[in-house]
Amino acid sequence: MVDISTQLIHHPYLPPTDFDAPQPGVFKASTVIFPNVAAMRSTEWKDKSGYTYGLHGTPTTFTLEERLCTLEGGKQCVLVPSGLAAVANVSLALLKTGDEVLIPDNVYGPNLALCEGELKAWGISHQRYDPMNPADLAARISDKTKLVWLEAAGSCTLEFPDLPAFVAICRARGVTTALDNTWGAGLAFNPFALPGMEGGVDISAHALTKYPSGGGDVLMGSVITRDNALHLRIKNTHMRLGFGVAGNDAEAVLRSLPSIGLRYKASDDNARQIAAWACTQPEFAQVLHPSLPTSPGHAHWKALCDPKGTGELGKGAGLVSVMMAPQFDQAKVDAFCDALQLFKLGYSWGGPMSLVVPYNLAQMRSQWPSYIRRGTLVRFSAGLEDAGDLIADLRQATEAALR
Ligand SMILES: *Cc1c(COP(=O)(O)O)cnc(C)c1O
Predict the structure, then answer these.
(1) Ligand 1 centre and the CA of 19: distance in Å?
(2) Which domains does the chain have, with CATH numbers?
């Protein structure tokens, strides 16, 4: 008689397989069991033809990858433990000693930190280009340039670039393009089908931490492509770095994904109402939201995200930034942020709760952008609360701290 511990581990019972429910089941594994040695030797880890090891995928992560490809218009996907890991996976896969990467001056801060703190030590240089001037990017591309990062919109200043123009320049020079698509989330525009050209960017990196998770409780990222050779370069680096995601986290994102369109639209609606209100308040010298005709790059946003000009909601994330009027020093701006009740002080966005962060733009940019007023930037991330309540909160904080 085999011991009970052995019986419990090698139990013969299998549940019937004809189970179906709105949500897929959760599979969790480091070890994957093969039926025989021949299968162990022949199963390929690089595609979805089988399972080899938890790091290379389970039914749960394969399902999430396929749904994210649908969301963003791509063909292949790798999942990574955070949005920043998605950025790192792309740069480490494509750049070698002697290469150069170009990043926009409004780049997501930790991407710049990766260039300065890691890539540089391996002999990979970087330059920052003007995110609103395609000619500036064109002038910086050289034989060393192997990757150009793009963002639309910029994550704090929310200026919207002429994305097709930037991609066309890179393509003409044979340089791979990677878009940090966290803001667009696959909903505001299709990064792989840009107007006026065949296809679009080569790579879309996405912080699933934001809208796909939608809960403020999961860290995850994805790297999506439409070219298998490019995907395999990224997948090989992914394997060598040991980037894996947990089954329960993948399940949390799968659970949120069906409502991403509704949540994205609701956040956009709240952000536009906040932006419209902020435009009427003298304390805010400049309001930044791509749907505002006065916001930098509005025409580019409109061409890409709202070509019919209907003002349809769901074509912009829940971010809105304001440049505080110059008479408010840092202490005043901090007091305003502290006085907010519903907007919590915290990084990230895309969850149910509205958030606020004051930023010192001078420390983030190589030069102050000509189209941004001088002052302290405050970024609001609109969550899913009632817009009237959010505006009332902004009003009471304005009155308490700034008047
Ligand atoms: C949040 C964010 C990231 C990084 O995502 P994490 O999961 O927090 O690492 C990358 N890019 C942009 C634009 C982001 O907003």
Answers:
(1) 36
(2) 37-258 (3.40.640.10), 260-401 (3.90.1150.10)
